[in-house]
């Protein structure tokens, strides 16, 4: 009975957002193969529909949309990325393969949309983590930011700041930044360059984002 009451509260809480109707929820629930998972998602304002479409209502009442990916497609996606000849896709494919060897993937290079327009592409998602992949530390510092140069929310904000319209991390999953190329060493100190170390320290201390610079270290950080 306690579980039933809790589940009803999740559904009522979602309906209170006034985005989806009770009929929509009923149709989606009936089609769900894993009904416990479906109800749990509703508790995070994530509606999984019968057609594989997913709609998440964030704290600002904005609807973030994406499409589920079937796990059977991930090996082909990974092989395609690794053999693409594109440095960024290769790094993402290698990271995805290393993670898949440890645990299942939920999505790979999946785009999230807001108002019909792309708002975020999350590189690799598991049940517990979001892993963002960059080829080099310079690329990471240029692209993995809290705020973009034009003042719009950056990649960090979209997975960490639930107060913005573009927030796309409903379950508050932990975030790891993986950089493929080994960081350069300052010959004068034998350590990372100060600006690189400051970037890494800020990720962890300010945003609670872990940094990884090898596949073995990346997989060791998985929950």
Could you please describe the fold and organization of this structure?
It is built from nine helices and ten strands. It is α+β, with helices and mostly antiparallel strands and 223 residues long. It folds into two domains: 2-57, no CATH class; 71-220. The strands form two sheets. The chain has an eight-stranded mixed β-sheet. It has a two-stranded antiparallel sheet with strand order 8-9. A hairpin with a 4-residue loop joins strand 8 and strand 9 (191-192). Helix 4 (74-82) runs antiparallel to helix 5 (87-100).
Strand segment count: 10
Strand order of the largest sheet: 1-2-3-4-5-6-7-10
- N- to C-terminal distance: 32 Å
Provide the domain count.
2
Number of separate helices: 9
The profile of the biggest β sheet is: 8 strands, mixed
Question: What's the arrangement of secondary structure elements?
Answer:
Elements: H1 2-15, H2 22-31, H3 35-42, E1 46-48, E2 53-57, E3 63-67, H4 74-82, H5 87-100, E4 107-114, E5 117-125, E6 129-134, H6 137-143, H7 155-160, E7 174-179, E8 185-186, E9 191-192, H8 194-207, E10 209-212, H9 215-220
Parallel strand pairs: 6-7, 7-10
Antiparallel strand pairs: 1-2, 2-3, 3-4, 4-5, 5-6, 8-9
Helix pairs in contact: 4-5
Give a nutshell description of this structure.
Helix content is 39%, strand content 22%.
Name its key features.
two-stranded antiparallel sheet; 223 residues; alpha+beta
């Amino acid at each position: 009975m306690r579980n039933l009451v809790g589940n009803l509260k999740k559904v009522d809480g979602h309906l209170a957002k006034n985005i989806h109707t009770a009929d929509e929820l009923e149709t989606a629930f009936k089609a769900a193969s894993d009904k416990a998972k479906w109800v749990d998602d509703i508790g995070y304002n994530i509606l999984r529909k019968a057609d594989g479409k997913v709609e998440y209502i964030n704290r600002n009442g904005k609807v973030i949309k994406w499409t589920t990916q079937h796990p059977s497609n991930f090996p082909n996606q990974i092989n395609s990325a690794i053999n693409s000849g594109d440095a960024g896709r290769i790094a993402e494919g290698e990271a995805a393969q290393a993670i898949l060897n440890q645990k299942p993937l939920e999505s790979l290079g999946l785009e999230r949309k807001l108002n019909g327009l792309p708002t975020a592409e999350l590189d690799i998602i598991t049940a517990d983590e979001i892993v963002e992949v960059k080829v080099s530390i310079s690329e990471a510092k240029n692209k993995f930011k809290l705020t973009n140069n034009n003042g719009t929310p950056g990649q960090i904000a979209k997975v960490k700041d639930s107060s913005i319209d573009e927030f796309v991390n409903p379950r508050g999953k932990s975030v790891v930044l993986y950089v493929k190329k080994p960081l350069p060493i300052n010959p004068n100190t034998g350590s990372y360059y100060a600006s690189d170390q400051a970037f890494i320290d800020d990720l962890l201390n300010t945003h609670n984002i872990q940094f990884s610079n090898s596949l073995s270290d990346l997989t060791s950080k998985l929950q």
